Amino acid sequence: MDVAVGIVAQRDNERAQDLAAALVNALEAAGASAVVDEATGAAIAATPVPVDSMDDRDLVVSIGGDGTLLFVAREVSPVPIMGVNLGEVGFLNAVAPENAVDVVTDVVADIARTGRVEGRELARLRATGVDEDWTLAPALNEIVVHGRRRGHGGGATIEIRVDGQSYAESHADGVLVATPTGSTAYNLSEGGPLVHPATDAVIVTQMAAAESMPPLVVEPDTEISLTVTDADTAYAISDGRNRQRLEPPATVTVTPAADPVTLVGPQANFFDGLDKLE
Ligand SMILES: NC(=O)c1ccc[n+]([C@@H]2O[C@H](COP(=O)([O-])OP(=O)(O)OC[C@H]3O[C@@H](n4cnc5c(N)ncnc54)[C@H](O)[C@@H]3O)[C@@H](O)[C@H]2O)c1
Ligand SMILES: Nc1ncnc2c1ncn2[C@@H]1O[C@H](COP(=O)(O)OP(=O)(O)OP(=O)(O)O)[C@@H](O)[C@H]1O
Q1: Of 3.40.50.150, 3.40.50.300, 3.40.50.10330, 3.30.460.10, which CATH number belongs to 4-121+261-276?
Q2: pTM
Q3: Which residues take part in binding NAD(+) (predicted)?
Q4: 12 is known as an active-site residue
């Protein structure tokens, strides 16, 4: 089959753009078609398309840091994604830049031969408003519910219910519901546990709670509900970017999202990656 690839390079990053240009050349030489995001298309000789229109591609390559991959996942999933790491941490991006051309052309040759893409499915979380009509973009890392702002005077009282049973209720900066993927991100900074990526789980971590309970790990099909009171304003936020303003009292329900993210390419060694975290 003719394989169609999309490439998204971190904006304003010349190294990412140079690598995108090298990938376009290698893919076209191998008989595949390649398009790039619009910002990259303005900098290199390649066909630019909006990132959200890459959902018709067989594979999308994200060149940048974890933030770029989270952005690409939001725009193109369920299309399989390969992450090339140009960032500092790069937990989600297993491919080193010097290997990118070889790894991408090998994967594209496999897709051409088999018509299939091999990848690992990463679960996401879905947050919806109870009695309010909104749903956030699915979260690959975490859903955070917090008060007006982080820090003194900005918190709220948040009750956490797990499949209908009350687990904790406290004044806090917020509460974080994370996937195993997100365990190494914001969850870790707030004292939540590391969860190995092969584990199916959802993590619930309070943020600077006055009366804290230990972080809780539950099985993925659990319904977590967060009821916010004692604040004029609060927010529900998916992966740090997609946010919904709440007018407390308000309840947010967090459940498994229907579509996972499919990550293609070699899997980063989890324990080696931990050295990169602060
Ligand atoms: N105090 C904190 O640790 C904190 C605060 C806000 C957001 N975040 C994280 O940033 C994410 C949004 O990313 P962004 O790029 O838009 O914001 P950003 O640019 O502020 O990135 C924050 C940092 O989180 C790292 N990161 C993201 N996902 C990770 C993961 N799964 N494992 C390990 N590190 C990871 C990134 O490499 C970056 O260094 C959110 O999902 C949240 O997890 C962390
Ligand atoms: N090609 C692009 N087109 C549009 N938006 C982009 C593009 N590349 C990056 N972005 C925006 O930039 C954000 C992430 O990039 P950012 O530079 O903040 O972090 P990063 O990829 O984690 O890199 P680093 O590790 O260097 O911080 C995305 O959420 C997205 O909004």
Answers
A1: 3.40.50.10330
A2: 0.95
A3: 66-67, 141-142, 171, 173, 184-189, 208
A4: no
